[in-house]
Request: fold
Amino acid sequence: MQRSSKDVWVGLFVLLGGFAVLFLALQSANLLSISFDRGYAVTAKFDNIGGLKPKAAVKSSGVVVGRVESIAFDDKTFQARVTLSMDKRYAFPKDSSLKILTSGLLGEQYIGIEAGADVANLAAGDAISATQSAVVLENLISQFLYSKAADGPAEDKK
Reply:
């Protein structure tokens, strides 16, 4: 069987298209992040991280300013220790605060950073102490049900 140069070019084009689709799928799922410019790492401790995952976005005013690098459990304080990789283009004051937020009602979770007023900025290795844990929907529902149960049986008023 004779192979022409067109067959080789078509094969290369199909391989290139396959790699492009794979790259876009990994990029859109936040499983691949290509960054040649490393930022600075800061840590924070949370009582409850909910469904926060590594590679989740760190946003300020809706702009992605970093990513969650790793999540570990601290067995001395019984809290989750989250390491953030912040983009070095963005400098935040040392007294900034972090919240675990959800995009939409049941969307993915991310960390929101609110800038403080300190003169000194965060640097590599700093720890952020002002944190607010994730709001867990199941806890809110159970608090609502327990408060309704404590009110007693509903009475018909006519």
Notes: The chain has two domains: 1-32, 40-144. Residues 5-28 form the longest helix (24 residues). The first strand starts at residue 40 and ends at 46. The radius of gyration is 23 Å.
